[in-house]
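anyone seen this seq b4? input:
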Amino acid sequence: MRGIVTRFYKTSLRLVPLLLIMAFISSIIGPNIAMANPGWYNLSWQYRKKITINAANVTATLTDFAVMISVTSDSALGTHAQLDGDDILFTAADEVTKIPHEIEKYSSNGATANLTAWVKVSTLSSVTNTEIYMYYGNAGVGSQQDAVNVWDSNYKMVQHLSETSGTHYDSTQYNNDGMPNITPASNQNATGKVDGADIFDGTDDRVVISDNNSLDTGANITVEAWVKGSSQAYKVFTAHCDSGTNQLSWKFYTAATTKLRIDISDDGTYNVGHRKRYDSSIDVFDNNWHHVVFTFNSTLTIYIDGNADTSPTKVYDDAITSLHNSTADVLIGAFLSSGTPAQFYNGSIDEVRISNTARSADWIKTSYNNQNNPASFLSLGPEQNAPVTPTVTTNSATNVEETTAVLHAVLDNDGGDLCQYSFEWGTAPGVYTANISWTGTITTGSTFNLPLVGLTKGQPYYYRAKVKNSAGIAYGGEVHFLTKPDLPTAFTATVNSSSRIDLSWTKGDGAQRTMIRRSTLAFPATYLDGDQVYFDTGTSFSDTGLSSNTTYYYRAWSEVTSSQQWSNGFSSTAGHTFVAAVPVTIGGKVYSVNKAAILVPWILLGIVSIFIFVRVILYVRKKTLSRPPPEKNLPP
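predicted toks r here
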């Protein structure tokens, strides 16, 4: 067991350097980061505008909220969108995720345009502004609307009342369309709070929505509308009720004065124990537009212009927990009494909606803020053009060492879109065997770099930068660098004679040639200093023709590819030549005497003589010590 642990420990220690290198490379290259803002929905749409929803007008963060977008007299939209607005679409803040929208009204003369649209926002924040995008400018595309999916499944009917004639179409998936009976016909083409509306004459005008199961909301309901009218008693602007056949579910109408009244029943009757009737404490019918809402989830609540009525008059307030599933048709502008329309409303009605949930106070307040004053609820940014392919310049590498280098580039033009970048490189021109994943979020003028590690010494590398946006990918020019070789090692100088020194070395890793330079004053400072002794591919050289009794200082550098790259460091050595022989005269002729040749035999003879002398002394001493001592004369 101890041996296993020991082996595991040793193996772990061997892995530590590898893991550290991998971590370093990972920190340099980084993950394959998806762009936070990837760019453009589709280049077939040539224009867009950012829409910013003011969080201050959103009272709580809401989910799947239908926001009304109102654009008036917009020249960019009028000039670049289709005349019928079919090419208009909306995306989420990421600029590419298409979100459902419904166009209630679009008008364009080719110069300016007006738009009323409803857009489903998945998360409408009350903390930070919400951004979405409106795209347009695609002449060849059909309608991009997805009206049904704008409205969550709790909406059972959404009547914009914007149709100027004929059927009023329900925007939800339940197809609760309405048949209008309005005269004159021009009253169906009235100006509403949001867009179009109907004017009801108080005599016989109404819109009839045939009953079906989707209109039976059970224990929860929200009914809302925009109404405008003068004081009138007991006039109905919408109801799901036939009072003559005990089919009351709910009835929304005027009280005896300028107040609002709601009746609800759990069994279809007005019998005691089965009903609620509340009158608002706030005036509504004053010839101004008002947003009126009631919700029920065991508790009945009235909202007027976004605020709950906290002190309504509770005429009846029985404890009921659900609404009657009425078989009566839903009417706008009247209700049914034994199958006959009655209590006709006199005034204008817009945006009638029914939900099978009790919408929150924040939902209702935000709806009011949005529809009452869209100009302060949101703002449109300037028109943006579709991006074009970016351009990039590959710059020279820096910090080039034996196994590391830093690649550089600059984004010259982002093409009107946020860009990502990458590098690719290899060891042959135009052949790129390595790269990093797309990363970063950069714009025009941004510089970017990539540190490389683990390179081969003395190796040429070829690389280029590349960038991309939603319009395409662009490549910079190819640039190359050469890593440095290692310095020579084991550099020695052996004095051979008074005029020759033998040099030897081990060539540096990655080097092609070795440069050796010498000086008699000091070590050469650079590979250009002193005198060149050697510059070739070998590992030894004899430096001849030297002066005697002189110290020579040598340094060696490694080199790659025609002096394009030199080693960072150098190796140093030195040698001192022998003293040259003094000339002597023999028979009138001067001869050069090699002192070494003359002196060496005499020196050797002296050494041998000394050795023999020492041996003789030692021998005599040994003999003397081995004799017995002389006998002494003892006294008698």
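Residues 1-13, 15-37, 583-593, 632-636 have pLDDT under 50 and may be disordered. The longest helix spans residues 595-626. kinda curious what u guys think
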